[in-house]
Amino acid sequence: MRCTVCRGQAVIDIPRHHSAFCRDHFFEHFRSQVRRAIREWDMLAPGQRVLVAVSGGKDSLALWDVLLDLGYQADGLYLDLGIGDYSCRSLEACQRFAQEHGATLHVVAVEEQYGLPVPQLARANRRATCAVCGTTKRYTFNRTARQLGYDVLATGHNLDDEAAALLGNLLHWNVDYLARQAPVLPARDGLVKRIKPLYRLGERETAAYAVLRRIDYVVDECPHAVGAKELLYKEALNLIERQSPGSKQSLLFGFLEKGRQFFGIYEPPPLRPCAECGEPTTAQVCAQCRLVRRAREAVAALKPLRRDAPADGEEER
Amino acid sequence: MPPAQGRLSPAGSVLSFKRVRAVRVHLRGPRRETLELAGRRTVAQVLAELGIDPGTVLVIRGDELLTPDVVLGAEDEVEVRPVVSGG
């Protein structure tokens, strides 16, 4: 297979673009898609400080790498979820990347902040681990970015992530989410501006970029992701994509260009400071404070809570 | 060891012995295993035989990525790495 640009040996084919690229032209393709995303959605201005939420996986480390490569002042934030060996290996991957690139990495541990790691926080609340993890990440990323004075928070969501989220929101007609689903969420009332510069790139492209850039990322998935709805939506979309390349892009880009406007009537609910922590919330007390409070109550009621017991699906260290 | 093919004499002893060159395929992710596939075939054929959607993986040989048309053989060793993440 030949590179569409130079006719040299291709290293990756991208059926939805009817293209294949050699190593150098794939990097150029990757950078140009990120530059285009940033420009079209006014994501980052020169001189702005951006905090990249990194997990040690392919997407977030590829994002950190490309932002540094494009000359942005990008630092990393790793949230240690306390998921056994998986979290240890993820932290090591982020630290390795930071060291090799001479970049700044901030590390925040969930257990230090909230008293329990994510799996136990979920157990104590009798909720799915992924749901508690999502709430904790959103809360901690925003608070940390604002406290450290960053202008923008960047996440590694790619085209596949966004298309799967859109499919899920459409299946359940989550109109509030549909109104807000975009590659940029502007800053408002204590929420730091959030951007998704990889939304034009599929996850096969982000993985290829990471491999070709020799980024040593964690390949294995989080043990709690097994059976997650997002994976089901991705499977369905991949089935369609295989028969009809470009379907995922068409779904997402078509929604952003034509469909999203119809959900504009659903105004985001007003935000106010949480009565307990002061972070922005739509309720009297924010979701994170409620999680922590219920966990404390569970710990008090079940004393002694076996904090050393592994959560479901978690491997022993 | 690569798989071998032999021809047996009527008495059952091996008359001639020919090694069949095999592709070693290391599957990463949930299907973590190593397979040996005898004979030459393309990357696309390997994935089709294993029932893997080519849009959900990278096929890696050493530090190079392989496109679907690359012919594997001669004791090639490749990694099939899933790219789908989520949760």
Oligomer: heterodimer
Task: Outline the low-pLDDT stretches of chain A.
Answer: 311-317
- What is the share of helical residues of chain B? under 10%
Sequence of strands across the biggest β-sheet of chain B: 4-3-9-6-7
Shape of chain A: globular
Shape of chain B: globular
Mean pLDDT of chain B: 81
The SSE order of chain A reads EEHEHEHEHHHEHHEEHHHEEH
Query: What's the number of extended β-strand segments of chain B?
Result: 9
Q: For the residues shown, what is the average pLDDT of chain A?
A: 93
For the largest beta-sheet of chain B, the strand count, sense and barrel status come to:
5 strands, mixed
- The helical percent of chain A reads 40-55%
**Chains forming the largest contact:** A-B, 38 and 24 residues
DSSP strand content of chain A: 5-15%
Cα-atom Rg of chain A, whole angstroms?
Answer: 20 Å
Question: Would you write up a description of this structure?
Answer:
The complex is a heterodimer of chains A (317) and B (87). Chain A has 317 residues and is of the alpha/beta class. Helix content of chain A is 48%, strand content 12%. Chain A has 12 helices and 10 strands. Chain A has helices at residues 23-40, 58-69, 84-101, 110-114, 118-125, 129-147, 159-171, 175-180, 203-212, 229-243, 247-259, 287-301, and strands at residues 12-14, 19-21, 49-54, 73-80, 105-109, 152-154, 184-185, 193-195, 272-273, 280-281. In chain A, strand 4, helix 3 (84-101) and strand 5 form a beta-alpha-beta unit. In chain A, helix 1 crosses helix 9 (203-212) and helix 7 (159-171) packs across helix 11. The longest helix of chain A is centred in the middle third of the chain and has 19 residues, at 129-147. Chain A is globular. With 87 residues, chain B is mainly β. Helix content of chain B is 9%, strand content 46%. Chain B contains 1 helix and 9 strands; from the N terminus they run E-E-E-E-E-H-E-E-E-E. Chain B has one helix at residues 43-50; strands at residues 4-8, 14-19, 22-27, 33-38, 41-42, 57-61, 64-65, 71-72, 77-82. Chain B has a 5-stranded mixed beta sheet with strand order 4-3-9-6-7, with no helix packed on it. In chain B, strands 1-2 form a two-stranded antiparallel ribbon. A two-stranded antiparallel sheet of chain B has the order 5-8. In chain B, strand 3 (22-27) and strand 4 (33-38) form a beta hairpin. Chain B is globular. Chains A and B meet through helix 7, helix 9 and helix 10 of A and strand 6 and strand 7 of B.
